[in-house]
Write a structure and sequence with these properties.
Layout: E1 4-7, E2 10-13, E3 16-17, H1 18-25, E4 29-33, H2 34-47, E5 54-58, H3 65-74, E6 77-80, H4 83-91, E7 99-101, H5 108-116, E8 132-135, H6 138-151, E9 155-162, E10 184-185, H7 186-196, E11 202-208, H8 219-237, E12 245-247, H9 264-280, E13 284-287, H10 291-294, E14 298-310, E15 313-318, H11 327-331, E16 337-339, E17 361-366, E18 375-382, E19 390-393, E20 414-419, E21 422-427, H12 432-436
Length: 447
């Protein structure tokens, strides 16, 4: 699953001991395993190789430049959803033709910037990577087309369509149904292909779907792909346009608990038969994986500040909380948490909410933030810990640092990349002065 393992009671990331890392760089700290990033990327590419997809890693899930560069060197493109992520893609060395620009609220400035840098540049019939704008609405199509006409460029787009399939582990990450703010429904999609299928400066050449996140069974993808293929056939049959690209989005689940998510090969085995013949006839496929590559490639190291008994509850108060990792508080998400240094009898045999080992006690793992909802785990059996001990929050490589905040004026943590026995700080820990840097001066706005 990853390169984080216990040896003689000590947690290692590749060849580096976690407690040594915590002592060197401080806590909280996000720690990534390069070997795990590469392993999960390679497995996904291998699983889907029959479809020859362009894989565009979802920048929003783990946007550190060094992480993006590792994946770009492996051959990955990027799925971006903002001008800031587009800037990161450029700095990571990802060419425009391997960038898919999605997102429901692209600004005029972001659109012009992307067009000016060649994102979605259209060369009909060319055998090249598939840069795209993924378009969410009729209004957005009109805005991008108008910008392309004004700039004298030609771009290519895919329309995001909701196949009305429920998927995803939480309502906040289920995005493929009719009530979603994302995309358009199938019937509206037919109207838009008829209306815009022959627009000169923004060619509507593809369909995009993304049905949700943390999906742990292939069945929703199978149903969604079938519905999208029916739409594509209807559009082509009616002569509106030819669909050249199918972007399947992402959402493949990751093993937050040992053995709970299908492998990339399992997802591919279910999806591949639906598309192989069409790929042979020229259909191009895009995938936008995120957490399935990054989640288990990272842990969050946090240090115990206090152990507190309150009534019948025992609290482990740490220096990381909802400001550092918001997923438990926001989604009720499970992250396995365990001390980075334990007696050999307490080495965890698997990652699960309940571990059957002697001497465990039920605790809440909470952070320093002044909110009752500030927790990383509740009623979790764990070995006894003391002030100063280091805890590891596993499967934190996706939507961890990218969703971190400075709430209560806590500076953002550092990030570390481990490569074998080498560890490098790839983002410095913020200081108190960093928190107020943008507030040091004031200026008149001239109104």
């Amino acid at each position: 699953m990853d390169h984080f393992r216990y040896e003689d009671g000590e947690l290692y990331c590749d060849g580096v001991k976690a407690v040594d890392l915590a002592a060197s760089v401080g806590t909280p700290a996000y720690v990534y395993s390069r070997a795990t990033l590469e392993m999960h990327y390679d497995r996904l590419v291998k699983a889907f190789e029959a479809l020859r997809p362009m894989v565009c890693f979802s920048t929003k899930c783990c946007s550190n430049l060094h992480v993006l560069k590792v994946l770009a060197q492996r051959g990955s493109g990027l799925d971006v959803v903002s001008g800031g992520e587009l800037h990161r893609a450029r700095l990571a060395g990802v060419p425009a033709e391997k960038i898919v620009f999605a997102g429901v609220g692209k600004t005029d400035e972001e659109i012009r910037d992307a067009l000016g840098r060649g994102v979605g540049s259209d060369v009909p019939g060319a055998d090249q990577p598939i840069g795209l704008f993924n378009i969410e609405s009729e209004g957005e199509f009109e805005v991008i087309a108008m910008a392309a006409r004004a700039m004298g460029v030609q771009a290519r787009a895919a329309l995001r369509v909701n196949p009305d399939v429920e998927a995803g582990g939480h309502a906040y990450v289920s995005t493929g149904h009719k009530a979603s703010k994302f995309g358009v429904d199938v019937e509206h999609a037919k109207v838009l292909f008829e209306k815009f299928g022959h627009e000169k400066h923004l060619r509507l050449a593809g369909v995009h779907m993304h049905i949700g996140s943390s999906i742990t069974t292939p069945e929703p993808y199978v149903e969604a792909v079938k519905r999208i293929l029916a739409l594509m056939d209807a559009v082509e049959r009616d002569g509106r346009t030819k669909i050249e690209v199918l972007d399947l989005g992402g959402g493949f689940g990751a093993d937050y608990q040992t053995g709970t998510a299908p492998s990339a090969a399992d997802f591919a085995a279910a999806i591949r038969p639906l598309l192989e013949e069409r790929v042979k006839r020229g259909l191009r496929i895009v995938l936008e994986p995120g957490r399935t590559i990054a989640a288990n490639a990272g842990v969050l190291l946090t240090r115990v500040l206090y152990v507190k008994q309150s009534g019948r509850k025992k609290f482990i108060v740490c220096d990381a909380g909802m400001n550092t990792l918001i997923r438990p508080a926001l989604y009720g998400s499970f992250h396995f948490i365990w001390p980075a240094s334990v007696s050999p009898q307490h080495e965890p045999p698997r990652r699960a909410p309940v571990i059957d080992l002697p001497g465990l006690e039920s605790v809440d793992v909470v952070g320093p933030v002044c909110e009752s909802g500030d927790f990383l785990a509740q009623d979790r059996p764990m070995p006894p810990v003391a002030r100063g001990d280091v805890l590891a929050v596993f499967s934190a490589g996706a939507y961890g640092m990218t969703m971190a905040s400075r709430y209560n004026s806590h500076p953002l943590p550092c990030e570390v990349m481990v490569e074998g026995t080498r560890a490098r700080v790839i983002r410095e820990r913020e200081s108190a002065e960093d928190l107020v840097w943008h507030e040091r001066a004031a200026r008149d706005v001239g109104v």
